[in-house]
Amino acid sequence: MVEQYLFVLPMVSLLLFGAMTPGPSFVLVAQTAMSKSRIEAVSIALGLGLGATIFAFLASSGLITLFKVVPELYMTFKVLGGLYLCYLGAKMWRTSKDSLSANTATEPGRPKPLKAMSLGLITQLSNPKTAIVFSSVFAALLPADVPEHTTWILAFSVFLLNFSWYAFVATLLSSAKAQRGYLRFKSYINKGAGLLMGSIGSKFVMDGFRP
């Protein structure tokens, strides 16, 4: 009985390692945690977890096969996702010029968890690398005759691991000490985060136009 679920452990382990690799999602959570509030950063983590769950369902339905059959679809996905990440990068770069005092850092105004969750969801779904990682892992390790309820268990595991990791990052970097450090180096942090996000997005766009 237990043996039929053993494939879940290596799958979620690989996907967790993928989530822990610094990328657009990590940059977004870290920058939000330090510059805004813990609740907004955790809300972004929730959105990232939901996005990962959607990718889990799509991957179990053969997303990588669809990309191979219709390569133009993957190209479009990469370009649009890359453009969105470039937009986020530009937005982060612009905020480096905004003035920020200690009071506004510790009291950033009324949190907007729903907006933050939506931002996390869109950021996750706009990342073509995540789509390929999920599709590749599912194609390699998911048995062909897996029961439907097992797919739900796997999707829930993916959500739990992604949300837990990014919520941990959000909690760690939204501490008073981290926010004071952010205040001191805000311009450099936001410019660095924006440059990294824009670079990743630009790479996706260029890769999307390559034959």
Description:
Helix content is 81%, strand content 0%. It is mainly α and 211 residues long. Helix 2 (24-35) crosses helix 9 (148-173). The termini are far apart. It is built from eleven helices and no strands. It has one domain.
* Mean pLDDT value: 83
Approximate helicity band: over 70%
Tell me what portion of residues adopts beta-strand conformation.
under 5%
Instruction: Indicate the structural class.
Output: mainly alpha
Distance between the termini: 47 Å
Question: SSE order, as H and E?
Answer: HHHHHHHHHHH
User: How many extended strands?
Assistant: 0
Any idea what the radius of gyration is?
Answer: 18 Å
Question: How does the overall form come out from the CA principal axes?
Answer: globular
Low-confidence stretches: 100-107
Could you describe the largest sheet, including whether it forms a barrel?
none
Domains (count): 1
- The helix count comes to 11
Subcellular location: Cell membrane
InterPro entries: LeuE-type
Organism: Photobacterium ganghwense
Pfam families: LysE
